[in-house]
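Figure 2 data, in text form.
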Amino acid sequence: MHQQGLSLIELLMGLAIAAIVLSWAATGYKELVEANERKDAAQSLAVGMRSARSEAIIRNRTVVIRGIDNDWGRGWRITLDDKQKTLLMERSGHARVVGNQPVRRSVSFNGLGEALLPNGGFRAGTLHICARHGPISHHQVVLAPSGRISLRSEVAEQAVCEKSLGQRTNA
């Protein structure tokens, strides 16, 4: 007699193979989602910094962009003259963003669009969009002393990413 359908062993083997393939696909999908979140955070932050600089030039006044609760990863807020009047706010929260010392918490632009330190000196720095679970910087928002903002995508190990990862696990 000719058999139609699958035996129980064939069905179980098919299910086992499908489970293995799906676990690999899920890991790849998770990595793809994290990569897209990092890229979106980098682009959003670069656009925000450019907007702050443009507002400073248009208004001929000091405009400040700062991380929400001193954390760029939570989002950023653009304020006029370092006061609490918010011009624009963007929330993120999916990426780990860490700045080196000059841009750790905020950036001030004067009426000429130059990024300045509180003492009046020129400011330059880099905000790194780091991997969620490692010391790797995938994207960088770079602030030049002239105030020009550029977005780079150079994957490299960074000490600021490693340091913030240690602070995050200890907190």
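Caption note: The helical segments are 8-59, 159-170.
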